[in-house]
Write a structure and sequence with these properties.
The chain is α+β, with helices and mostly antiparallel strands and 300 residues long. The mean pLDDT is 94. It has two domains: 7-119 and 232-255, Orthogonal Bundle (Butyryl-Coa Dehydrogenase, subunit A, domain 1), CATH 1.10.540; 122-230, Beta Barrel (Butyryl-CoA Dehydrogenase, subunit A, domain 2). Strands 1-4-5-8 form a four-stranded mixed β-sheet. It has a four-stranded antiparallel β-sheet with strand order 2-3-7-6, with no helix packed on it. Helix content is 45%, strand content 19%. The chain has helices at 7-20, 25-34, 39-47, 66-94, 97-102, 105-116, 226-262, 265-272, 282-292; strands at residues 122-125, 141-145, 148-159, 166-173, 176-183, 189-193, 204-215, 219-220. Helix 1 (7-20) crosses helix 4 (66-94) and helix 4 packs across helix 7. A hairpin with a 2-residue loop joins strand 2 and strand 3.
């Protein structure tokens, strides 16, 4: 199997890395210490067309695949932006794939271009307290009355809810799990940020819905098929996160090697090697231990 980049993927990696050079370590360190969404980074990615890397060309995207998106996300993390940078655009890359696959023509024309252009930021509201990975047991309810849904309940660990204008929302409706993409109307939504150890540039939150009105036109596909639909966003998400982790690991190794070579550590390593062969070899030391500690016969 061939794991090297294609020429096109190499161009993607180089272009994204060059863009990320405009956001050096000091930028991300400030975001980590002060918090606050990296809006200028998000907009730079949008301006250069990267938010639509895997979206259809007819709606302003590049029409590329998950492999190219993974190359892009790995390059972001590897630049030193880490998960702070990757998470700032992560939702744009995978989140609306259920709309691409199952949305009708009107929904695609209305929902996709603003996200690709960076005009809308969206959050992905699936996880709930007390359900863990048992997605089918979600309790947030969408009750239909007079041609409109009203959503009530709680979600947790929802990224970018502090700044989102839109939400991809999985709920329980009459026929079962149902998916919506709708306005993040803060008159009916309360957001409470969760303090966490890392990735402070991208907020994580508890989100409370209080009879959020959702037009039927914002329902993706049919009632009761939301779990099937959401997998078309979750599956590529797993691939992108893996690529981001590879990028973060490569960045960490490169920075550690650079640090060891700016300072005296590498000299200490070179000088310590002499003790491995002089005045006696490791093999002779082991033979001595075998004889004196383990009681084995002398072998030299």
């Amino acid at each position: 199997m061939e794991f090297s980049y294609s020429p096109e993927q190499e161009r993607i990696r180089e272009a994204v890395a060059k863009l990320c050079e405009r956001f050096p370590d000091d930028y991300w360190l400030k975001r980590d210490s002060e918090g606050g969404f990296p809006a200028d980074f998000h907009q730079a990615m949008a301006k250069d067309g990267w938010l639509g890397v895997a979206m259809p060309e007819e709606f302003g995207g590049s029409g590329l695949g998950i492999s190219e998106a993974a190359v892009m996300m790995q390059a972001i993390a590897e630049s030193g932006a880490g998960f702070s940078g990757a998470s700032a655009v992560h939702m744009n890359i995978f989140g609306l794939n259920p709309v691409v696959v199952f949305g009708n023509g009107e929904q695609k024309r209305r929902m996709l271009p603003p996200l690709i252009a960076g005009q809308h930021k969206a959050c992905f509201a699936v996880t709930e307290p007390n359900t863990g990975l048992n997605t089918r047991a979600l309790k947030v309810k969408a009750e239909k009355r007079d041609g409109k849904y009203f959503v009530s309940g709680q979600k947790v660990w929802i990224s970018t809810a502090q700044v989102a204008e839109k939400v991809l929302l999985l709920t329980q409706a009459a026929a079962g799990l149902t998916l919506f993409y709708t306005d993040f109307d803060r008159q009916h939504i309360e957001v409470r940020e969760i303090d966490k150890m890392g990735r402070h540039a991208v907020d994580s939150n508890q989100v409370f819905f209080d009879a959020l009105p959702v037009p039927e036109a914002d329902r993706i596909g049919e009632e009761g098929k939301g779990f099937e639909y959401i997998l078309h966003g979750m599956n590529p998400e797993r691939i992108l996160i893996a690529a981001e982790l590879v990028g973060l690991g490569r960045c960490a190794v490169a920075r550690a090697a650079k640090y060891a070579k700016e300072y005296q550590v590498e000299r200490y390593l070179r000088e310590s090697l002499v003790g491995r062969i002089a005045p006696v070899s490791p093999q002779l030391i082991l033979c001595f231990i075998a004889e004196r500690v383990l009681g084995l016969p002398k072998s030299y």
